Amino acid sequence: MKRIAEVFRQLESADRTALIPFITAGHPQPGLTAPLMHGLVRAGADILELGVPFSDPMADGPVIQRASEQALAQGVSLTLVLAMVAAFRRDNGHTAVVLMGYANPIEAMGVERFADAAVSAGVDGVLVVDYPPEESEAFAQALIARAIAPIYLLAPTTSPARMDAVARLARGYVYYVSLKGVTGAGHIDADDVGRHLAVIRNHLHLPLGVGFGIRDGATARAIAQHADAVVIGSRLVQEIEAAPEAEVVVRAAEWLAGIRRALDLPPEDGERS
Prior bond to 28 cis, omega within 30? Predict the structure, then answer.
C-alpha cells in the first residue's frame, strides 16, 4: 500500500499522470511474466496490474479472455501468480504491483491464507471484480491489516450510495470503468469521463484511475486531463499476443513507451497544466 501512495504523491508533485499497464499472468507463457513486468517498468509504468487467469470472467473482453485461457492451459494458478510477483520482487522493490481478478481462486485458497501469501510475495493491492463493497468487508479488512490496498471498481452507473460504500473500504486508488461493457470495447468520451470523475470526487478522496477502452496515446492523453492514472490492458495484451515469443518483452515495452511519451508531452492550450 505504501508503494502505491508514494507513486501518486511523487506524480502529483511533478504534475504527471500514472501509467498502469495490465497484463495477464502467464501469457503468453509463464516464464515471460516477470521479464515483461520489468520491461514495462523500464518503459515508464508506474504501477503494474497483473491479471490472475480465471475461466469464467464477467468483465474481460475477448482479448483478455484468450490470454487467460492460454495461461490456464499452461497450469497458471493463483499460487503461481504469487510466485511470479515474488520473482519480480527479487530485482524490483519499488514498483507497486496490483493483482486483478475474480473471487473464486481467492475463496478456494482461503481469504486469510491468500492475504498472508500476497503480503509475503510483495503484492501492494488487490482488485477483485466480483467482490462488491457490500459483500467484502472481511476481505478488505484482511488486506488492510497487512498493508495491502483493497481496490474497487466504479462505473458510469454507480450510485452515490455505492460510491460512499467504496470510499469506506477502498485504499490506494479507485478504478473507474469508463464504458458500459467489457474490457477493450467501445469508444471513450473523455469529457463524459471528466464529468463522472468530478461527481466521484465529491464522495471519495483517493486517486482515480480510468480504464476500459484506452487504446492509444491520444486517448490516454485526453483521459489524463481528468484522471490521476490511465489503465491500459486489452491493447497491450494484443501487442503481446501478436509478437513472436522472442520479441514479446521488447515489443510490449516499445508500445508502452509510446503511451508514456504521449502522457508526458507538455500541455497544450486548454489542457490541464
Answer: yes
184: left (phi over 0), alpha (psi -120 to 50) or beta: left
* Residue-level pLDDT at 269: 47
Distance CA 111, CA 273 (A): 43
Residue 119 lies in a domain: yes
pTM of the shown model: 0.93
The pLDDT of residue 38 is above 50: yes
Phi, psi of 266 (to 5 degrees): -60, 145
In a domain, 29, yes or no: yes
Single-letter residue type at 204: L
Q: Provide DSSP, 216-270.
A: SHHHHHHHHTT-SEEEE-HHHHHHHHHS-GGGHHHHHHHHHHHHHHHHHSPPPTT
Question: Is residue 272 domain-resident?
Answer: no
pLDDT for res 59:
72
- Residue 141: which domain range? 2-260
Q: Report the CATH number that the domain containing residue 197 is assigned in CATH.
A: 3.20.20.70
Total domains, the chain: 1
Active-site annotation, residues = 49, 60
